[in-house]
User: Which sequence fits this backbone?
């Protein structure tokens, strides 16, 4: 199985090289790793006490941030090194002041893993949610460095739990402790004789709560909304934008669209749906009568949801599924999304709590939105359910950092 694993990794790298002939992301994936070890030699010195956190991409990085910030508070003399697999994650980390070193993860070969470990010599290793790189994990375990998995979630259909998944299942035993999001994940692990695990919850709840608590006004938004009801559609794709724009054409509400991809081509596609739409970068006081506002930047969405009457989360009409519902729910807003949400625990539980609604068509979206806008009690009830759901799931970060402290996994200066 190790031979097959190594072969697969080599084939994956070959596929990336072929994709780089056409894909900008593939080019970034390759060029970002070109002088990786040289950059680490420059950034890490021999006396540094390193906490290494690995995140697959930007979403996992958001889950890791609450733990990073708590560790920085409790262990100020340690340095935080964050590695990423994807270019989007790597770019997300560039402006994050709490991380001392941001790097790509070297491709998972035995030689790379040894060189990486010997350069950074971590005192603690934390992987976020998923990604299991055998060589990197086994080298750290060989040196008796504690490895934690946080905010993990497991399903019976995963490779670990197949009859032919023994090689991958063995990787789970390399972790000192696995912190899972829910009881279902805990049960699956225990049924497979993996008992070094505990339910901590999802650190994303702590992250969105902190962002909401530190809210600051976005200049121009409140004046543009005035006293009108407003739908905030976040992380949208074309199917989502068609649905939302169809609704506002026949209803006296305002719509703010924050697309998932902020490219000129995509922005122009949205403008075709509503020719009177204005981009945020061009917004002025004379444009308050416009009905649709397009956010043409990144990083504003989590604050935008504060202004919503109703929120709509994009991605539910795509195969990959919906985007972050918690950023909206934490503000106490009803949440609507498309039909592809089943693999997202928080979406299922938000629906069960009464804070979220799934739609499969423009007609269903109209029915639910009309009901919420025309019934203040229904609107308040759904918004309260969303906020309570987030509040009731806080605390994962504290459980993880308390485990680190109680088990003395890090030295204090």
Assistant:
């Amino acid at each position: 199985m190790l031979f097959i694993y190594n072969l697969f990794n080599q084939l994956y790298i070959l596929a990336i090289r072929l994709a780089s002939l056409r894909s900008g992301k593939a080019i970034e994936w390759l060029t970002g790793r070109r002088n990786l070890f040289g950059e680490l030699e420059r950034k890490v010195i021999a006396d540094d006490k390193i906490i290494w956190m690995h995140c697959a991409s930007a979403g996992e990085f958001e889950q890791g941030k609450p733990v990073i910030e708590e560790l920085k508070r409790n262990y100020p003399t340690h340095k935080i090194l964050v590695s990423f697999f994807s270019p989007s994650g790597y770019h997300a980390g560039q402006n994050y002041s709490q991380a001392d070193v941001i790097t790509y993860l070297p491709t998972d070969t035995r030689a790379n893993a040894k060189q990486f470990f010997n350069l950074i010599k971590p005192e603690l290793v934390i992987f976020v949610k998923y990604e299991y790189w055998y060589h990197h994990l086994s080298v750290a375990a060989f040196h008796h460095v504690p490895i934690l998995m946080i905010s993990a979630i497991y399903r019976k259909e995963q490779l670990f739990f197949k009859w032919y998944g023994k090689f991958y299942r063995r990787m789970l035993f390399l972790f000192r402790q696995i912190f899972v999001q829910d009881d279902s994940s805990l049960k699956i692990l225990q049924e497979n004789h993996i008992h070094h695990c505990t339910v901590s919850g999802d650190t994303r709840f702590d992250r969105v709560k902190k962002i909401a608590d530190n809210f600051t006004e976005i200049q121009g938004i409140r004046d543009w909304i005035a006293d009108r009801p407003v739908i905030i559609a976040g992380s949208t794709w074309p199917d989502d934008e068609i649905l939302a724009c169809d609704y506002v054409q026949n209803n006296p509400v305002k719509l703010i669209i924050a697309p998932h991809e902020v490219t000129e081509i995509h922005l122009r596609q949205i403008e075709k749906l509503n020719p009177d739409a204005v981009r945020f970068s061009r917004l002025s006081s004379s444009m308050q009568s416009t009905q649709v506002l397009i956010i043409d930047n990144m990083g504003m969405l989590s604050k935008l949801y504060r202004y919503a009457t109703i929120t709509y989360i994009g991605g539910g009409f795509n195969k990959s599924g919906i985007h972050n519902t918690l950023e909206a729910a934490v503000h106490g807003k009803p949440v609507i999304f498309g039909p592809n949400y089943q693999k997202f625990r928080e979406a299922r539980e938000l629906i069960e709590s009464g804070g979220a609604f799934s739609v499969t068509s423009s007609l269903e979206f109209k029915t639910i939105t009309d009901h919420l806008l025309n019934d203040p009690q229904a609107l308040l009830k759904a918004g309260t359910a969303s906020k309570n759901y987030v509040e009731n799931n806080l605390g994962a970060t504290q459980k993880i950092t308390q485990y680190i402290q109680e088990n003395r996994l890090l030295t204090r200066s």
User: Anything to note?
Assistant: The mean pLDDT is 94.
